[in-house]
Amino acid sequence: MNKMIYGLFFGDSITYGEYDGVFGGWVDILKRYALQKYNEGSTNELILFNLGIGGETSEGLVKRIPHEMKARNSADGNIVFIGYGANDLAVKDENQMIDAEQFKANIETAIQHAKLYSNEIYLVSILPISEKIDSKISTTGKIRTNEDVLVYNQILKDIATENALSYIDFHSAFLEDKEILLSKDGVHPNEKGYGMMAEIAIPIIEKYL
Question: Which helix (H) or strand (E) holds 124?
């Protein structure tokens, strides 16, 4: 029997697809892919929700995940993607937006909420940042470092291991060619970068089609 499965993508502007005027970001590419597969005769209908909010930290995630999950709960099953950290680790006015300890606690809390509705939870790595902006103040007044990216990604990896969840390692995929996969601001992917993220994620969603 055909199932209708929901895929919920929580995250910041990189989940939302900011700066991608061509494809609308990696989640939107996946949405079109899932719809195309369904129209071609896939047995399951996979409906993907892009719940990315620009500038959001894991603090915002904790506040909204119980409501978002309840509002979009498919009886046939839900897949949850959680992609945070790029804003949490940013330093503004000499203060880290969300320190490493609080970040870990927030992600763990969010996972507990997600587990009420889903056994299929994926943690998404933080992308590397361009050398041009590493340790420099951006136009938004934030400082990000690749050193912090590694620290926060390790937290995500550890949480994934402890909770038997899957970890999507976009960071490693970007590392070597990051200067050509990131947009001018050095934080968000460009069209090429988002396309590569979608390519990595397509085999994941194919399991549910």
Answer: strand 120-124
